[in-house]
Design a protein that fits this description.
mainly alpha, Growth Hormone, Chain: A, 2 domains
Length: 548
């Protein structure tokens, strides 16, 4: 009979010499893999001609939707493939909400292990779906099962990192969640390389690419899962003591809210709206960045005074290259913003950080139509880079915001419930931007102006988000766990590790992962840092096209 005792939470208790800087690269190893969800669009074009190989084999016009799902003699349109992207974030949010409490008791290693099985197993099922040409297998494999893996992998390090870095909550979560934003930067070029390698006159090379990526990601995610450690009971950084100035830390509680009670607390719903509105504005732009730049500036991107619709096919190909550089530049700021803004929040506070997001965002979004009309490309690009940095920063800052407001005992579970805001925004943002654009075009609005109304609407959403953030106040004492409830919860969550901690250290010292030597930390950071740095360098090279 299989024994999975090595996954138990108490087996991840760190020894006395453990270096806490070993934990962030473990989180990055998982986030860089599941972050490929952002880059899945690299598969859409080759999958849309999986049967025809050189060009799509169009299904008969009278074929029903359900018939297309199981058809093996015609290709899938990109609109059907795109549903996987929506499923990713719907199931990410819902799985994080459903299993967030389980994660608190099971520990980060078990959650990371299950995440690896789901994400990589979903890729294997998708590979079979491509091989058999059954799109429902891609939806179930990567969309549903992979989406569950996304949710568990995304929240697996949050509670752990906050407990390891009580002195730098924002920076710690920013480091890990930065990896999710960078997953596409590493994964998309890797996927493109594999597709080109496996492509042949008889196949587009996607199912083989899925299998290779599943194997590589499984190794990295397992390394991350087994790299997780939790601090011993009562641990705190050497020489650090919690701040005692109550006035200066009025928004940081010393108490703890139980996750099951979070739904009735007004502050939770205000922060839910804060995240949802910030993400709705950002993700809508992120998904339309390339066509937005091309349609707004048209021929001006290559030195011509020509509207987008009047360009030749060759000229459109030229500006598409420029737009690809723009998209890459936005990705870089999305990643950098996760670390920079989250780290800044340690000094100015989470509420103040979000206030900056909304005030600055309102100004930037409302200014974009004017920049479009004047043709100021440099400011246009700069404004969008700042916007996307705040989009990424919002994700990285929110776990620390939750820990400040509701305590650290159940922050992983609470964060999981809050991610339903992301699932909502993941649907609302793209739909809002796309449908307004289509409506504007149908009304005869010039292509260069179809996004003006959208920008004003998004600015309006940020006004609502600002109001919600300003309404956030310290949580009422009645919502916190009593001393008895907290003791009971800690007993349920950590009783076994408390009883076995000394036994493990004495009898199985290796299991506690004593990683005190700086060389081990350097190697761990190198394993995740070098691929990310290389991908960022490649993107920067492409982004230079914007300034030539």
């Amino acid at each position: 009979m299989l024994n999975f005792d090595f996954l138990a939470k108490e087996r991840t208790i760190a020894g006395p010499n453990f270096n806490r800087w070993f934990v962030p690269p473990a989180a990055l190893a998982i986030h860089l893999c599941i972050g490929m969800a952002y880059g899945f669009s690299v598969f859409w074009l080759p999958l849309s001609k999986a049967i025809g190989v050189t060009k799509p084999v169009v299904c008969p016009a009278d074929m029903s939707f359900f018939a297309r799902i199981v058809a093996t003699n015609c290709d899938w349109p990109i609109s059907m493939l795109g549903w996987m992207f929506t499923m990713f974030f719907v199931f990410l949010g819902s799985s994080a909400a459903i299993w967030g409490s389980w994660l608190e008791h099971a520990g980060p290693r078990k959650a990371g292990f299950v995440s690896a099985l789901c994400w990589c197993g979903g890729l294997v099922i998708s590979a079979l779906g491509v091989y058999l040409h059954q799109i429902w297998m891609l939806w179930i494999g990567s969309g549903v099962i992979g989406g569950i893996g996304l949710g568990l992998g995304y929240i697996s390090p949050v509670s752990t990192l906050i407990k390891w870095f009580p002195d730098r909550r924002g920076m710690a979560t920013g480091m890990a969640i930065m990896g999710f934003g960078g997953g596409a930067l590493v994964g998309a070029p890797f996927a493109d390389f594999l597709i080109n390698h496996f492509a042949s006159p008889t196949g587009v090379g996607v199912w083989q690419s899925f299998l290779v990526m599943a194997a590589v990601y499984f190794v990295f995610m397992m390394a991350g899962a087994f790299g997780y450690r939790i601090p011993p009971l009562g641990w705190k950084p050497k020489g650090w003591n919690p701040p005692v100035n109550a006035k200066a830390n009025v928004m940081i509680t010393k108490h703890h809210v139980h996750a099951r009670n979070i739904w009735v607390i007004p502050q939770f719903w205000l922060i839910w709206a804060v995240l949802c509105l910030n993400v709705t504005a950002g993700i809508g732009i992120l998904g339309m960045a390339s066509p937005l730049l091309q349609e707004v500036f048209g021929g001006r991107l290559i030195g011509l005074v020509t509207e987008f619709n009047d360009l030749t096919a060759a000229q459109k190909a030229q500006i598409a290259t420029v737009a690809a550089g723009f998209t890459g530049l936005l990705s870089l700021f999305n990643i950098a913003g996760r670390f920079v803004w989250a780290s800044l929040s340690d000094y100015i506070g989470r509420k103040n950080t979000y206030t900056v997001f909304f005030l600055l965002g309102i100004i930037l979004y409302a200014s974009i139509p004017t920049l479009s009309a004047t043709g100021n490309l440099a400011l246009f690009v700069a404004f969008f880079c700042i916007i996307l940095s705040m989009y990424g920063g919002g994700f990285a800052t929110i776990p620390a915001y939750l820990a400040d407001m509701f305590g650290t005992q159940m922050v992983g579970a609470i964060h999981g419930r809050l991610l339903t805001a992301w699932a909502t925004a993941g649907v609302l943002g793209p739909v809002l931007v796309n449908y307004i654009r289509e409506y504007q075009l149908n009304q005869g609005v010039p292509t260069a102006q179809v996004y003006n109304v959208t920008m004003y609407i998004l600015a309006g959403l940020l006004v609502v988000g600002l109001i919600c953030n300003l309404l956030v106040r310290p949580v009422d004492d009645k919502h916190f766990m009593s001393a008895e409830e907290l003791e009971q919860e800690r007993k349920l969550a950590r009783d076994r590790e408390a009883r076995l901690e000394e036994e493990i250290r004495e009898s199985r010292p290796g299991i506690t992962g004593e990683a005190a030597h700086p060389v081990y930390v350097f190697l761990a950071w190198s394993a995740v840092g070098f691929p990310l740095a290389y991908a960022m360098w490649i993107v920067m090279e492409k982004a230079l096209v914007l300034f030539q």
